[in-house]
């Protein structure tokens, strides 16, 4: 049992009072509370840490704008012009500051944006005279802000899942062609802010024979695009500085551009011939289900972050799976044999190929090999006139005052009434073992917002999303502010040498970081602020992003190693994700001329943010059009066509 000190509110306090008491403290007596069995108090701590960072960001802004006396020598953002420079004076000044002229040379051939980028790097490379003790304290605070940043991303993901989890799960029903599957993958990932969640749903659908691997491949491509929306949102946090926004948005969208170009090539190829499905089947066909102690998934940082995010709000993944696999009508809790399901199907289905008469929610995948799937068995069936299928019910009909067992001996699955049902007689099949209302369950299953504040799913989702977005921007602001003091001179030079040494080394670094944090969104979202302030240039950001893409696929492979059913299909989906990114890197990165395509695309998107009229709203427009409007229209057309 864990120990904590908590506040004991009186029963008559309303929700807002309790919320404020958790966040700000109380005048009531503080008493010792051992808490429930297991870990407790993480939710309170997580929100307090987030609000502390928000408060710190506010205080820094007040200090910079109202209290601190500026020397008047600071250059405003974007104030770079094409005037002729006195390069001799510039070289002498750079030498005095310990920066070589080649690092900061501002020549007439450079554009205003390039001059701004060079000057930003020069600012970081200039030696700092700050007190070492101050630097040490600020370094600890940077790590604290990074920790809160990771927690905030977890809370934000939960908020988006609570708002869009059920809707995203419903989308998987209409994915019957490559384009609709791609759009479903994008929308579902954007709504839950996690390609890992989308991939896990896809794996579960494939494992339950609700989705083919061929269709799943295109959903994975969509999830790859959708996951890049997180760092695009992070880049918007730099809207206050025109050059930072341009660099940050370019650094974030290089992920988008690469993924979109990847899809542009491999979607038509895989549509013409399912190369990924065929290749991965040959690689995974001998995989076996895990057993016993082997079913332990390897995780690194997630076990340390997850308790805090779940302490605030815990999301029930099973509900999304119930919806995506169409268990809304009901699910039989008994495990019937094949022979038993054949007997049931013979009574309720029109034929061995058509059972659409059983329920309004019926889909083709309910029936395979000439009989209903095992967990699709009804609770009761009612005999009808000779020659017509028996009535199929998940709930006991009102007319059934009494019922007869359909199976004589359930272990042997024998039935003396099969083939000769009496009209109007009720027969119990799965009976009380049928679970109904599975899709109506709440997505919110625990955490502070449910246990203490009693919020609704939508209320909690809205609250968490708003607070986490504010906290996200605050973390970025504090990190950048403190890094400008800490990472100067020697530290900046070391970082530049590491990330600028070799692009392929950057791919390895990006892969390693993503495996550790188990999220490409976290990796790219952490690197985006460094790109925004000019510490990492776009040419170095691209390979780091490519490494993040590979790293997130390896977490899927780890998940595939612990599946207990249909391991071949699970491995196929995981390997398709991996090779989709590897092949993309082989196409777009090794040749410098081809590498310029995603780089120039990202630079163009970054430059669009500098437009004097609508530059600052362009990132928002881009995000809505690419991640919501276009996929949404395509999804709507597909839904209408399916209907």
How many angstroms separate the termini? 53 Å
How are the strands of the biggest sheet laid out side by side?
8-7-10-9
The unreliable regions are 1-39, 71-88, 93-108
Major β-sheet profile: 4 strands, mixed
Count of helix runs? 24
Radius of gyration, rounded? 29 Å
Beta strand count: 12
Globally, the shape reads: elongated
Computed structural class: mainly alpha
| Average pLDDT over all residues | 75
Q: Helicity, in percent?
A: 55-70%
Beta-strand content: under 5%
Please give a structural write-up.
The chain is mostly helical and 643 residues long. Helices cover 60% and strands 5% of the residues. It is built from 24 helices and 12 strands. It has helices at residues 15-24, 42-67, 87-96, 101-104, 112-125, 132-170, 178-192, 195-207, 213-226, 229-235, 242-272, 275-284, 302-312, 317-324, 338-348, 448-451, 457-486, 490-501, 503-517, 520-532, 538-560, 567-588, 592-608, 618-642, and strands at residues 4-6, 31-33, 314-315, 331-332, 367-368, 371-372, 380-382, 391-393, 404-405, 426-428, 434-435, 444-446. The strands form 5 sheets. Strands 8-7-10-9 form a 4-stranded mixed sheet, with no helix packed on it. Strands 1-2 form a two-stranded antiparallel ribbon. The chain has a two-stranded antiparallel sheet with strand order 3-12. Helix 7 crosses helix 24. The radius of gyration is 29 Å and the shape is elongated. The two termini are 53 Å apart. The relative contact order is 0.14. The model is unreliable at 1-39, 71-88 and 93-108 (pLDDT under 50).
